[in-house]
Amino acid sequence: MRFTVLLSTVVLATMASGLVIPLERRQYDDVLYVREGLGDDMAEYMEIDDAHKNTKNMPEHQSTFHVPGSPANGKPDHTYTGQEVQKAVYESHAEADRLKGASKTQQKKSDLKDFKNYDHREPKTDGNGGAKPLAHMVVDGTPGHPAGKEWPLLNKHDPNTPGPARVITQEIAPGHHVFQGVVAHDQSRIAGTPGYNDHFHVSEHKHTTAHP
Predict the structure, then answer these.
(1) CA–CA separation, 79 and 99 (whole Å)
(2) DSSP class of residue 4?
(3) What residue ranges are annotated as transmembrane (predicted)?
(4) What CA dihedral angle connects 145, 150, 153 and 155, to 10 degrees?
(5) Long-range contacts of 110-113 (CB under 8 A, 24+ apart)
(6) Strands of 64-67's sheet in order across
């Protein structure tokens, strides 16, 4: 009993200080997540951790997701690793937990938004991108198919502004989610034009090891 209390005290003190905590119980022993501003409630921490552990279809750490830039619009390329995508998914679970006790105003200001996989307003003329952001994702309100959640990936070139890419998750059962993919804006489009806010699927490129 004394050991449990001491262990909990150490963990909570670490969380309160904003240090990183290795989430070894998910077997991501080489990933450290920053826990900032999420309180010192151990039960809350465990709930977030469980939500992440119970998220299926996560990308491999060494996978990459590439979002093309647009030199004409002054927008650079963005490339994210699977590990960075995993971290963003974790952050989305933490934000969802925080919003449970938030006011409507706070919820509205949050970067965590509903994702309903609407048809593109302006499909790409080359036929790429399909009719919807995620062709495989069903959002019809039936059990296991509610609106998903979107959470922004870091803008590496300017952390003070939103980046073009989002991670998408969907709760398929209470406490159980599936990572549906990464979507991003077409950066060649100009603000105010039709389809500027359309999202397009960003493919996962899995790491392959060359064999001699």
Answers:
(1) 29
(2) H
(3) none
(4) 150
(5) 111/151, 111/152, 111/162, 112/149, 112/150, 112/151, 113/149, 113/150
(6) 78-81, 64-67, 204-205
**Does 52 fall in a domain?**
no
The tens digit of pLDDT for each residue in 117-136 reads: 999 999 987 777 889 999 99
Identify which of 151, 187, 146 has the alpha carbon closest to the alpha carbon of residue 170: 146
* Structural domain that includes position 178: 61-205
CA angle 202, 78, 29 (to 5 degrees): 80
Can you say whether the dihedral through the CA atoms of 166, 172, 174, 178 is positive or negative?
A: negative
Output the DSSP codes for 134-177.
-TT---SSSTT---EEEEEPP-SS-TTS--SEEEEEEEEETTEE
- The answer to whether residues 168 and 181 touch, using CB atoms and an 8 Å cutoff, is yes
Q: Which residue has the tokens 């489009």?
A: 189
State the number of CA atoms in the 13 A half-sphere of 66 facing the CB: 6
State yes or no: pLDDT of 177 exceeds 50.
yes
> Is residue 35 a part of any domain in this protein?
no
Task: Please report which confidence band the pLDDT of residue 212 belongs to, taking 50, 70 and 90 as the band edges.
Answer: low
pLDDT for 182 equals 99
Structural domains of the chain, count: 1
Which residues are CB-neighbours of 180 under 8 A, at least 6 positions away?
A: 57, 134, 136, 137, 148, 168, 169, 170
Is residue 89 in some structural domain?
Answer: yes
Q: 198 lies in a domain? A: yes
Give the pTM.
Answer: 0.78
